[in-house]
Amino acid sequence: MDGLAVRLFGQVGATFGGAGLNLGAPGPRSLFARLALSAGETVTADDLVDALWGEAPPRTARSTVYTYVSTLRKALGDMVIGSRAGYRLALPPEAVDLRRFETGFRDARRLWLADDFCGALAQCEQAVQEWRGTPLAGAVGPFVQRERDRLEALRVDVQELRCAALIEVGRADETIVDLSELAAANPLRERPHALLMTAQHRTGRTAEAHRTYDRVRKALDEELGIEPGRALREAFELMREPTEAAVVPAQLPHGVAHFTGRARMLQQLQTAEPGSVAVIDGQAGVGKTTLAVRFAHLVADRFPDGQLFVDLRGFDARAKPVTVAEALNRMLRALGAEDQPADRGEHYRSLLADRKVLVVLDNAANAEQVRPLLPNARGCLTVVTSRNRLTLDGPRVGLNTLSPAESVALLASVLGADRVRQDPDAAGELAEQCGHLPLALRVAAERMGSGSYALVDMVRELRREEDRLDALADSDDELSDVRAVFRLSYRSLEPLPARAFRLLGRHPGTEIDLHEAAALFDADLDTARDTMAGLLRQHLVEQTATDTYRLHDLLRIFAAEQPEADADAAVLRLIECALASAHAARVELTPGLGDVVHDANCPHLTPIGYDAALVWAAERLPTLAATVRAAADRGHDRLAAQLAATLAVLCYGTSHWTLWLQVIDIGLAAARRTGDLLNIARLCNDAGVAYHYFLNRPDIAAECHEAAAEILVQLDPEDPSVAANLAVAHTRLDRHRGSLALLERDLHTAREQGNLFLEAIAALNLSELLSERGESERALEYAREGAELLKRTGSRHRHMVGHATENRGVALLAGGHLAEAIGHLEEALAIWQELGNQRAMGTAMHALAEARHRAGHTAGVRELLTAALPLAADHTRASAIRALLAEVSAAASPR
Fold first, then answer.
1. pTM for the predicted model, two decimal places
2. Distance between CA 781 and CA 182 in Å, rounded?
3. CA 778 → CA 21, 68, 660, 741, distances in Å?
4. Most buried of the four, 6, 116, 451, 878, by CB within 10 Å?
C-alpha cells in the first residue's frame, strides 16, 4: 500500500493518499502502534500480549489479538502479515514519523562528531518537526508508558544537540528560552545547564550565567552530594566574575509538600511566553493554586526582577473579594513604590514596563477583577487561577481531577508508600470514593494520620454516600472541608442556575444528556443548553461529549443535599422522558413485538433512525438502567416495570447482558408489586433469552419462558403485545424441546398474525434445528426465508441479521457449499465483532475455520480456532474446537 503514512506522535493514526484510515477502537489502534514501532519486522504474539496487557493478560488475550488484527486488516489490507512467528506491518521504517525522528537524531550525532554543525542542526530541526504531540496518544497498554519515557529522554537529547549546534553556528540568542526550559525540567542534568551558561555568556548575560551555575551547583550538592562535572566547570571558566544582583520581590508561597501528577498541565504552562496571560481554571478543590505555585517556582529564575502573588479572594467565606485598588496597592508596595499615585494602574504598568516579573493572581472571581492588574509588559508573565472560565488573551489550562494512578500516588506520598502497598485495593477504592479530587484525597489521607486509622477503615467510613462529605471535613480549617469549599461555589449562583444544580443532583446516572436535563428543569432544549453552559463556565458540571454532561461524584452528593421543592416532580418527568425515548428507540430497532407503553410522553423527543437508535442505546443504557432503579426506589413501580421491559431490545442489541439481568430483576420485582401480568411475562421472556444467550443455561431459560407462557395464555389473545410475547415464549420453548413440528406450528401462527418479525424468528430457529439434525438443504431454505423476512420487516436489527447470516453459513457448510459458506460466516463474524458478542464470535470463528479447512484455505485457520477456544460456551463446543485444531495441526505437519 504505497503512500501509507503512519503517525505515532500525537493521536495514533494512519493516512493513505492524505485520507485518514479507520483503525478502530483503542485496542486495535494500540496493536497497530506496537506493530508500527517495529515496522518491517515480525512481532511475536507473546510480545503483543505483553505490550497490551503486561504480566496479567486476560484468558482471551490471544483471541483478542486476532480480533484486533482482523479489524486492522479491514483498514490496511495485506499490510498486516501474519505467520507462525507473529505479525508484521509490511511498511518501510521511513513511513513512520517516530522512526524518522530516531533516524534524524542518529544522523545529527554522526554529523556533530564530524564537526559538521550546520548539518547536525538541519537534522535536529527535521527530527523536532516530527514531534507533534504526546507519543502514542490514544493507545493503551503497558508498552505505551515505556515508549513515552524512552522517547521523552530521546527528545531531551535532540533538544540539547540542537541548541549546541545553534551555539556553534553563532545563533546562541535563539537557544536561551529552550535551554531555560530544559534546565528547569531537568534540574540535576548538567548538559542543559552548561549549554545555557554558554549561551547566556555569549549573548552578554554573564550575570545570569553565574546564577545558573550557582543554582545547579547547589542542587547537585544537596540532592546528589557531588560537585559540578567537567562540562559545567569548563562553561564556568569562560565567564567573568558575577555582578551583584538587585533586590527583588519574592512573594510566592511555599509549594505543597506532596505535589503529585500534573506533568501535562505543567508542560502546557511552560508554553506560555512572557507578555502573555496563562489561566488555570477548574472546580473547587481540584488544585488550581497548588499547580500555579508549583509552576511559578519552576520558572521563577526566568524572572530575575521578582515574583508577585495576590490572593484575590474571589471565593472566600472569610472575607470579601479583593478590590482592584487594594491589589494594586499591595503590588506597588512590593515593587518598592513608596508613593501611591491616583492612577495606580498606570504607575504599576510603568514600573513593570522594562522588568521581567512573574505575576500570580490567585482565586479570581471574574475577568473584570483581573484585567486592571495585567502588567502589559513584554518581559512579564501573568498566571491567573479561577473557578470560573475567564475570557483572557493567553493559554488556558482546564484542570480536571487526577487520574486513578495519580490519586493513589498522592495517597502514597502523604501516607507513605508502604501503607498503600500493603492494601492497594483499599487505596484504589478510597481514590474512587474521593472522586480523584486532590482536596478530598488530602483530607482523607491527613485524617488517617500516622497509622492508627487504616486505609480499609477510611474506605468503610466513606462507603455510605450520605455520610461521605461529613467524613471529608476538617473542623479546624474551613478550606480543608470539602462541603464548605463546594458551598462557596454554590452560593455564587443566581437562583435559576442554583435550582438547576440542585435538580441535577437528583439525576440517578453518571452522565446527563441535554434531553434529561431539560426534563429535570421542565425547560425547552435551548434553555437547558444555556443553563448547562453557565454551570459549565463555573465548573459545577463537566462536558463529556456534545450535549452530554456529568457532575463530579462529590458535587452530585452535595447538590442532592440541598433542599429542592420540585425534586420529586422533576425525577418523575425524567423517568417519563426516559421511557418515551427508550420506547422510540425500541420501535426503531425491533418493530413487531408490540408496544410496551402507549402514553409515555417527552416534549423533547426527536425521531431517530436505526443507526442513531443503536448508538443512543449503547451510550445511554447505564443511565437508563439507573433510572429503572430510581423509579422503583421512589415507588413508581408501574413505570419501573415498563422501562425495564422496554430496555430488553436495547440491551440485547448492544450485548449489555449483565446490565440486562440487573434491569430484569428490578423490573420483575416492580411488576409483581403492581400485579402487572403482561410485563411480568415480558420480563420472564427477557430473562429466558438472557439465560440462553449469555449464561448458556437453557434449562433455566426454558423455565422462564414457561412462566411467561402460563401468564400470557390467561390474557387477551387479541392484544398484539400478548400475542407477540406468547409467540416468543412458544418459539423459544419449542426450540429448547427440539420439536420440529412445534416450530413449524409457531411459523404458521406468526404468518396468521401477519407478524413478519416473529415469522423470521421461527424460520431461523427451524434452520438452526435442521442444521443440527443434518438436514442441510431444508436448513438453508429456512435460513434464506428468515433473512428475507427480516428485510421485509424494515428492521436492521444487527443481532438478528447476525443470526440469520450465521445460520445460512452453517447450512451452506453442512451442504458442502464451501465458498458461499465462507462468505456468509465472514460476514457474520464481522457483525459479532462489531457488536462485541463474545459467545457468538466463538461459534462463528469455529464454523469459519471448519469451512476454510475443508476448502483447503489453510491461512488463518489455526488462529481462528485458537481465538475461538476460550470463547466456547460449553464443553461440547470446546471439545469440537480442540478436535478440529488437532486435525488442522496434523494436516500441516510434514509426513
1. 0.62
2. 72
3. 42, 36, 34, 14
4. 6
